[in-house]
Every structure is written in structure tokens, then in C-alpha cells.
Amino acid sequence: MSQGFLLCYMAASENNPVEMSYALKYLSDRLRRQTYREFWPCPLAAYYLVDVSFTDVMEAVDRRVSTNPLPPATLELGRRKRLCVALFHDGVKSRAQGDEAHCLARMRECYALENRVIVLEWYLARYEVEKAGVA
Predict the structure, then answer these.
(1) Best CA proximity match to 123, nearest among 90, 81, 95, 93
(2) Cα separation, 100 vs 130, whole angstroms
(3) pLDDT band for position 130 (cuts 50, 70, 90)
(4) How confident is the model at residue 36 (pLDDT cuts 50, 70, 90)?
(5) pTM of the model as a whole
(6) Confidence at 108, pLDDT banded by 50, 70, 90
(7) How far, in Å, are 41, 76, 107, 133 from residue 26 at the CA level?
(8) What is the DSSP string of 19-63?
(9) pLDDT of residue 124 exceeding 80
(10) HSE-up of 68 (CA within 13 Å, CB side)?
(11) What integer pLDDT is reported at residue 101 of this predicted model?
């Protein structure tokens, strides 16, 4: 689904409703094929499609999906990655709805996470924050 999320970012940033419609259709098609819609990143796709609230997305960020015993550091890294993606895309959705102030606030939150997260959204948030001069 990451391609659909990236398409949403590009469409919102270019204020292009035709491309946003295409991106949302892409996410809808991907989401329909998922058996376990409660697993990440399905809640984020559903949020873009207005099927769930951002509170639901944040619950999914904190949800542990593995029954295998994992080291706490590994669990925390996964949670921070999901948090970074969730914050970024809440900002993107805000931008698409015309709320640039909320978008940049979310970009700052995302960028403030430790860089060791290493997800594309962190780098895009850094770009947005530096471009806006709101670091």
C-alpha cells in the first residue's frame, strides 16, 4: 500500500483532485484484497478512505500483532515506524482538506522522531519542514 500512500502525498501536495481520486481508488482496491484489515497499514488506508478515525489509526500504531516473543527494542522500533507513517499521513490528509497549518504541525511531529526510524515518510516530513522554514 505504500505506493498508494505516496500517490496521496503527491496528489495533495500538487492540489490535484484527479490524482487524489486515483490514489484513493488504488488504496481501496488494495484494502479490499486484505484478509486481516486490522493489521498495519490497513487502518491507515481505511483512514484515507474515511472508514475509520485517526484515533483508530493510533490504536493500530500501538497494537502488537506478533505472538512471538520479540525484544522490547524491536517492538519499540516497529511502533515508532508506524507512528512516523501515521503522523505524516494525517498531515497529508489535512493538506488535502485545505488545512496546511495542521499538515505542517504533523510534519514537525514526524520529523521530531529519531532518524533511526528510517522510513520514507520521515525524510519527506524533513523536506516539508525545511521547505516551510518551521523547524
Answers:
(1) 81
(2) 15
(3) very high
(4) confident
(5) 0.91
(6) very high
(7) 14, 30, 24, 32
(8) HHHHHHHHHHHHHHT-S-TTSTTHHHHHHHTTSS-HHHHHHHHH-
(9) yes
(10) 4
(11) 97
Nearest to 114 by CA among 69, 75, 84, 82: 84
Predicted confidence (pLDDT) per residue in 72-101, tens digit = 777 788 889 999 999 999 999 999 999 999
Q: Which three cell numbers stand for residue 124?
A: 519527506
Cα distance between residue 129 and residue 30, in whole Å: 30
Cβ atoms of residues 49 and 31 within 8 Å: yes
Residue 127 is placed in which grid cell?
Answer: 523536506
Rounded-to-10 torsion of CA 33, 7, 127, 90: -60
- The number of C-alpha atoms within 13 Å of 27 and in the hemisphere containing its C-beta is 25
pLDDT at res. 117: 66
C-alpha cell at 20: 487524489
96, 85 contact by CB (below 8 A): no
Which cell numbers hold the place of 123? 525524510
Which three cell numbers mark 101?
Answer: 497549518
Identity of the residue numbered 28: S
